[in-house]
Amino acid sequence: MPRIELPVTGQVAPERADAARNRRKILDATARLIAEQGPAAVTMNAVAHAAGMGVGTVYRRFGDVSSLLFAVLDDGEQRFQQAFMTGPPPLGPGAPPAERLRAFLHTAADRIIEQGEIMAAAEKASPGARYQSGAYRTMHTHVSMLLREMKPEADPAVLAHLLLAPFAPSLFAHLTTELGVAKEQIKAGIDSLLDLGPQRTAARAVETTEA
């Protein structure tokens, strides 16, 4: 199979020193606002005031609140990407595609539960931004690659979109906050969607050993 290059989040052209300093100040100010007041408090004016710079600088650097919030999430996204692209199995290379997909979706669920409030604020600020982000494109490409190995007869690109559709912050907030669904229940549901529950996985392992 030809190698598929994934669009890694965070790969940007080198910045001038002053631009890099401004970017860091803006992201630090945004992170402080989120920690102290929550993501809803993040506006371009509030960030500019917290960073001690003109609001025009914030707009020129990030464009809108959605882009700014996604940038705050970027560091964690880069670590996630490195884990599933080059890290140890089963999330990284070396495990069967079905096990890698299961590990990937479990880890994605953990990230949404941990950072869902910021993710939800980013999506609310710019509806549809999720599907245009480098993070989503990378996830979609990775899941498509695994599905292509698992189900060569299917359309992996469409199937990947459908499989990732439930991984929206609003749904996870509804499940965990409004319905009180535990993280373990969500992961069990993911396994059921994949038909990879513990009994099924154990049965496949026995079949492989006997073969």
Automatic annotation (TrEMBL):
PROSITE patterns: HTH_TETR_2. Keywords: DNA-binding. Residues 43-62 bind DNA. Residues 20-80 form the HTH tetR-type domain. It comes from the Bacteria. It comes from Microbispora hainanensis. This is TetR/AcrR family transcriptional regulator. Pfam families: TetR_N (PF00440). InterPro entries: Homeodomain-like_sf, HTH-type_TetR-like_transc_reg, HTH_TetR.
